[in-house]
Amino acid sequence: MILTTDRLTLRQPDARDVEPMLDFFASDRARFYFGPLSRAEGWKRFAIYAGQWALRGYGFFAVTRSDTGQTVGLAGPYHPEGFAEPEMSWLLTDAAYEGHGYATEACRAVLRHLYADKGWASVVSYIDPENAGSIAVATRLGAVQDPDAHIPLPGCLAYRHRPEALA
Amino acid sequence: MIAAQIITPRLTLRQPQAGDLPAYTAYCTSNRARFVGGPFDETKAFEKFCAMAGHWTMRGYGRYVMDLGGQPIGHVGPLGINDSLPEMTWTLWDAAAEGQGFATEAAMAVWDHLHTQGWPEMIIRILPDNTTSIAIARRIGAIQTDEAAPAWYEGALTFRLRSEVAA
User: Fold this and answer.
1) How far apart are CA B70 and CA A79, in angstroms?
2) pLDDT tens by residue, B129-157
3) How high is the ipTM of this complex?
4) Close Cβ partners of A133 (under 8 Å, ≥ 6 residues apart)
5) If you average pLDDT over residues B36-48, what whole number do you get?
6) Are B83 and B54 in contact (CB under 8 A)?
């Protein structure tokens, strides 16, 4: 499964993404994603993300720049045991990739895919209230806070994406 | 190229798939997982099984599920979390599958395949009270060494498989 946008190619994660993801997990940027983590723990965490495809049939896409092939992040539905529904999640691996609209562009493509190809009616995102960057992305995507959502991650806010609101 | 599937006289060794999850979870949440840091809860079992699938994505090799006539009975194969020598692992998920040589048959077949693919050596770590696995290690030609256990597997004995003794 490959999704393309103006600037980005989204594909299933593979060996090319390991180093950027281990750098990400080792950094303070991973504080909203179970981290920071050692290389060994980061490796396991990324294996969990990559392997979810085999168990669920959906999962995180690696977000890459189409011109350079560089991995700039992940975007896709994260769905561990214990979540009542899959969570639309995303991250940029390095601060240098912020401010370009990559996360919004990638998430828009993934959401369209989930609505059009998989028939999902809505998707939730759980976001730490201190993660202003992700709240801004969710808002740009048209998501609004959902007071009725079950929130499996303590302290997080639930934002609900819907096809009609996708900007 | 590491094979995605290996056939032994009685087993099909194949990549993990969604249908294996109930049997794997039953193992992971049972006392049988005590030699590998368990028992674990269902959330952790799901993550560990995702990681088993994701390992293949990231490394191009990984652990196989032992499939006995359509029934998943265990897993076997190389684990390569960090840059050190990959570790050979095997586990039968249910006591009912023990005592019939399945783990030995499976581990031998995987090691045969790996060393024909140019793998010269593998490491095996086993806790000293896991006498069943120690017997299997010896049966497949592994030699015990005096190497210290890694920090993440305190007290474990170390064995090595080398291609010249596996013939």
Assistant:
1) 27
2) 999 999 999 999 999 999 999 888 899 99
3) 0.90
4) A98, A103
5) 96
6) no
Residues of chain B with a CB closer than 8 angstroms to some CB in chain A = 15-18, 21, 42-43, 45-47, 49-60, 81-82, 152
Q: Are strands B12-14 and B87-92 parallel, antiparallel or unpaired?
A: unpaired
- Angle at CA A20, nearest 5°, toward A15 and A22? 90
Verify cis geometry, omega within 30 degrees of 0, for the bond prior to B39: yes
**Contact predicate A13/A49, CB 8 Å:** yes
Q: Which of A53, A78, A68, A65 is nearest to A10 (CA)?
A: A65
A82: Cβ contacts below 8 Å, ≥ 6 apart: A152, B42, B43, B46
Report how far residue A122's alpha carbon sits from residue A144's, in angstroms, rounded to the nearest whole number.
11
Query: In chain B, which residues have their Cβ closer than 8 Å to the Cβ of A44?
Result: 51, 81
* pLDDT for the residue numbered B139: 97
Which token pair is A57?
A: 């049939």
Chain centre to alpha carbon of residue A97: 14
Across the interface, whether the CB atoms of B58 and A53 are under 8 A apart is answered no
Global pTM reads: 0.92
Q: In whole angstroms, give the CA distance from residue B95 to residue B107.
A: 17
Stretch B70-82: mean pLDDT: 95
Instruction: Name every residue whose Cβ is closer than 8 Å to that of residue B156 and which is 6 or more positions away in sequence.
Output: B125, B126, B127, B128, B149, B150
Q: Which residue in this structure is represented by tokens 């190497």?
A: B147
Q: Find where tokens 């969570």 sit.
A: A87
Task: Evaluate if residue B39 carries a pLDDT over 90.
Answer: yes
Bridge partners of B12?
B7, B67
Q: Which pLDDT tens digit goes with each residue over A17-69?
A: 999 999 999 999 999 998 999 999 999 999 999 999 999 999 999 999 999 99
Which residues of B fall within a CB distance of 8 Å from A51? 16, 49-57
